[in-house]
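User: Hi! I have a protein structure encoded as tokens and I'd like to know what sequence might fold into it. I'm fairly new to this, so please keep things simple.
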């Protein structure tokens, strides 16, 4: 279900911003859908479909499987506003990597079951089933996430150990509940049942972009393409990544963590208010205890923007850092 709150005049004025992105001439893109089975227990399962967009540059042998965050779908990874700056998929395709930008179950073109079936764990299970289908075609698979999608990427990698690298963006193990809780409490029901939520109109900038510059076209695009998240996705995200022994302790492949000046996860070292993101070295020191088995942990801080870093004016800097890291896996 989409949430298009723009007037017809505004949409007309921004038609070029919302137009489908054109792939690189050397890159082949197609919409795809994968049958997946999710369940709360082995006896209570549901057959669903996880949709996405697969873009493959000629000769690509590595694929990045991209999981969006809450209230986002695949468009987070392929932002249509000034895509040469903001499209993560376009940047990685240009660097020679295939990308599969997914719609989480319940969002975009994926199926929409009752929200009670939609948890971080069932999302990770669905992604695992998708990854299994990619293995014969690609020699390496990197699972990547943004925000709550990063929690799902870590659950997938830590549970199944079927990937060659993990990219974590917009997420650390020390959530700043002082800023996160108000964002959650300001959400409204949207979707199949009351368990699906989205942001109230005109709250995207304060929720996900501040303290970055307020760029009207960028925020307009974000508002026009926003989606939902299920409340139940947040429960095991917290339990498996910040409360009990983190699932990331089981990850045994290289990890890259990328954050902006993110008030939801960063605090420059203040206790119980997020991680120390004052520098890449400080972030690495703060996060390293949660990744004891990884052969390599890298960190990157994109200064000047908030949570949704693909919208940052300097997003190409982090895109290039990801491509360089992925090349070394």
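Assistant: Happy to help. Inverse folding works backwards from shape to sequence: for each of the 329 positions I chose a residue that suits the local structure. Here it is:
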């Amino acid at each position: 279900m989409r949430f298009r709150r723009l007037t017809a005049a505004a949409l007309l004025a921004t038609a070029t911003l919302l137009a489908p992105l054109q792939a690189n001439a050397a890159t082949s893109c197609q919409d795809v859908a994968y049958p997946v089975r999710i369940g709360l227990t082995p006896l209570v399962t549901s057959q669903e479909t996880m949709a996405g967009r697969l873009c493959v540059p000629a000769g690509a042998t590595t694929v990045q499987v991209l999981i969006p965050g809450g209230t986002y779908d695949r468009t987070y990874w392929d932002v249509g506003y000034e895509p040469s700056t903001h499209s993560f998929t376009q940047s990685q395709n240009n660097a020679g990597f295939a990308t599969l930008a997914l719609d989480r179950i319940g969002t975009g073109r994926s199926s929409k079951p009752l929200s009670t079936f939609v948890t971080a764990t069932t999302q990770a299970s669905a992604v695992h089933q998708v990854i299994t289908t990619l293995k014969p075609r690609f020699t390496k698979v990197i699972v990547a996430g943004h925000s709550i999608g990063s929690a799902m990427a870590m659950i997938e990698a830590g549970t199944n150990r079927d990937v060659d690298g993990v990219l974590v963006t917009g997420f650390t193990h020390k959530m700043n509940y002082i800023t996160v809780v108000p964002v959650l409490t300001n959400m409204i029901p949207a979707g199949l049942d009351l368990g699906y939520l989205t942001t109230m109109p005109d709250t995207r900038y304060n929720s996900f972009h501040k303290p970055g510059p307020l760029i009207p076209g960028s925020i307009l695009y974000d508002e026009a393409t926003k989606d939902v998240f299920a409340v139940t996705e947040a429960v095991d995200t917290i339990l498996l990544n910040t409360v009990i022994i983190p699932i990331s302790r089981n990850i045994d492949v290289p990890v890259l963590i990328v954050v902006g000046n993110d008030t939801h996860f960063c605090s420059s070292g203040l206790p119980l208010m997020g991680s120390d993101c004052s520098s890449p070295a400080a972030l690495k020191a703060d996060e390293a205890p949660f990744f004891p088995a990884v052969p390599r942990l890298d960190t990157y801080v994109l200064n000047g923007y908030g949570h949704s870093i693909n919208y940052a004016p300097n997003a190409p800097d982090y895109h290039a850092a990801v491509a360089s890291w992925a090349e070394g896996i």
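A useful reference point when you look it over: Residues 120-134 form the longest helix (15 residues). Feel free to ask if any position seems puzzling.
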